[in-house]
Input
Amino acid sequence: MLKPKTNIVLSNYLYIIIQTQQFFRPVRISSGSKMPRADWGIVSSSIVSILEDQNEQLKVANFINSIVDKIRVVNTQIEDYTVFKKSLLQQMLCY
Output
């Protein structure tokens, strides 16, 4: 299990870091043939850049999370409009 040292990295910042390509490259190198999994030896020896200042980590995490929230809102709007469009098309074809 991956846990942050709370005096070094904030957990919400770490969550963002583990979604980056820099983190995923070593994770993709797998071991095991029947059930492939990340090789912890490779992952644990990998270097991942992090901001040292926790205030900066918080700013980055909040910024990324605000973008994710906006994406969710837009995706919901797209789904709503798609349903609305289907409804309109059905109404048009029924008349």
In short: The chain has a mean pLDDT of 84. The first helix runs from residue 11 to 17. Strands lie at 30-31, 37-38.
